[in-house]
Amino acid sequence: MRLVIIGAGFAGMYAALSAARLRDIRGLAPEELEIMLVAPEPTLVVRPRLYEPKPETLTAPLLDVLKATDVTFLRGTAESIDTTCRSVVVATSHEGRKSISYDRLVVATGSRLFRPNVPGLAEDAFSVDSLEDAISLDRHLKSLSSRPASEARNTVVVAGGGFTGIEAATEMPSRLREIFGKDVNTRVIIVERNPAIAPDMGAGPRPLIEDALRKLGVETRLGAGVAAIDETSVTLSNGERIEAATVIWAAGIRAAPLTAQVPGERDNFGRLVVDRELRVVGVPGVFATGDAAKAVCDDDGNHALMSCQHATRMGAFAGNNAAAELLGEAPTPYHQKAYVTCLDLGEAGALFTRGWDRNVEHVGADAKKIKQEINTVWIYPPKPVRAAALASADPQRVTDL
């Protein structure tokens, strides 16, 4: 039997470890149930931290923990899925294209930045969506110091006033000060189509976010979108033109394109609709998890968000349940009743809320300590020690924060 997992992000990593855990509990040898993880590299990109400087350091190796738990790693890119024949075509660097058969499949392909057809977006904007994107932005920012001083050189526009946009924008004043020195006046401007910043955060946390932006000198342009971008400016939908040599696009994400090859229902974000055990509805043998899945996560009808907080726990359930089906075990319904947010606000600290109503529990330096622990400890892979790694993926024990 073979369980194939596509994707080595938070959901894919924990799906593999959780399946290996159940296999271990049942006393099966690796050759009796092969667990194969398919990804371009055996590396976890710590995507929630890519707004920070030195993005090239924000990865964690996976090969040792996969070896310790007898998970087969296939280096390559999944190009196509045939759910009728139960096979995946993988493009590898050394063996060309390979067709891999599966008995169960877990789609953990994550998400991609939503890039609409805005003139100049593809050519002149940056992002923190992928490791490569974040490294490109970091190099660009460092190169600005060699340019003649100008308003455009000293201005950064962040398109999108949601979670990612706010974290990128509030980190930017200190990054620019490191590049230009303390005596250069710089501007950071968030552009948000909605009439308020942080549209999804609600009225409770918003005044605290607005206060942090004021302390940092971050400006906002609300009720307007980006209409065009070029090398030295941004034009807004209301006609305003902002001189800026740096534009960071942070205006939403969508499920990775590979999910479109699974013949299941999808939502407006491209996520596959799954049942409570994370099976893709109407597609036998296929599970979806993380940003690839639209899943109900509690009895109140709340759905998992496209975040590592939900992906980590969803991955553990998906891997366990896919292996359980193969082993004739009862699946465990996915549940994630607790929900928190921890928003980094740069030198203004952070903001920690709990619950879907986002009740504020910690602010400022106290919340910053929590954010730093999340970013440097909680979201990293377990140590490559078999017992500890398998225990970390118990779906009933994976932290609910």
UniProtKB/TrEMBL annotation:
Its EC number is 1.6.-.-. The keyword Endoplasmic reticulum does not apply. Residues 2-315 form the FAD/NAD(P)-binding domain. It comes from the Bacteria. SUPFAM superfamilies: FAD/NAD(P)-binding domain. GO terms for biological process: aerobic electron transport chain. Its cofactor is FAD. GO terms for molecular function: NAD(P)H dehydrogenase (quinone) activity. Keywords: FAD, Flavoprotein, Oxidoreductase. PANTHER family: 64 KDA MITOCHONDRIAL NADH DEHYDROGENASE (EUROFUNG) (PTHR42913:SF3), APOPTOSIS-INDUCING FACTOR 1 (PTHR42913). Belongs to the NADH dehydrogenase family. This is Putative enzyme. It comes from Candidatus Filomicrobium marinum.
